[in-house]
């Protein structure tokens, strides 16, 4: 092997880690209720948010809401939040926000029975940084979630909502 070939191979191997790889993002939400797991694609939810169209996949979930709550869900999914990504990142690292995110991590996780604290914080920061002008939405957070799926503990979410003072 000549000298030039060795240099080219060396450079090639050095650059391999720099080649962009597909980034993981939540493609599916898994609603966990006891031993049951109900999948829903983020794409179906995005279609509903953007177009108001209920896909066949989303129809079961939509049937669980009355018209008013379904409209509120769509508004919530579409709502844009504008915030400086760096300032938001700093805010999310304060003790109060970390406690809040850890509580949310009990509901929204990378796998059942794993706290999703770091995944949520990372997704929030990523969504804020990647959508600075138009602002981020809940769909952007789902897409920025660092695993292919997001588990949602529906029983715990219901308990927390019933116990909340909001």
Give me the strand/helix succession. Answer: HEEHHHHHEHHEH
* Class of secondary structure makeup: alpha+beta
How many structural domains?
A: 1
The gross shape turns out to be globular
Give the N-terminus to C-terminus distance in angstroms. 71 Å
Kindly report the average pLDDT value: 84
* Number of beta-strand segments: 4
Percentage of β-strand residues: 5-15%
* Multimerization status: single chain
Number of helices: 9
Q: Tell me the major beta sheet.
A: 4 strands, mixed
Radius of gyration: 20 Å
Protein described:
There is one protein chain. The chain contains 9 helices and 4 strands. Helix content is 57%, strand content 11%. The protein has one domain. Mean pLDDT is 84; it is low at 2-22. With 166 residues, it is of the alpha+beta class. The chain starts with a helix and ends with a helix. α6 packs across α7 (117-130).
């Amino acid at each position: 092997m000549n000298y030039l070939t060795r240099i080219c191979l060396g450079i090639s191997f050095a650059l391999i880690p720099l080649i962009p790889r597909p980034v993981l993002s939540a493609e599916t939400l898994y609603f966990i209720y006891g031993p049951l797991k109900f999948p829903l694609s983020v794409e179906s939810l995005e279609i509903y948010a953007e177009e108001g169209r209920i896909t066949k996949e989303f129809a079961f979930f939509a049937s669980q809401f009355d018209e008013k709550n379904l409209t509120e869900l769509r508004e919530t999914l579409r709502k844009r939040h504008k915030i400086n990504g760096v300032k938001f990142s700093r805010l999310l690292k304060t003790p109060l926000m970390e406690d809040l995110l850890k509580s949310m991590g009990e509901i929204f996780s990378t796998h059942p029975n794993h706290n999703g604290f770091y995944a949520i914080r990372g997704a929030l920061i990523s969504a804020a940084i990647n959508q600075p002008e138009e602002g981020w939405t809940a769909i952007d957070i789902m897409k920025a979630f660092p695993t292919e799926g997001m588990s949602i503990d529906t029983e715990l979410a219901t308990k927390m909502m019933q116990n909340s003072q909001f």
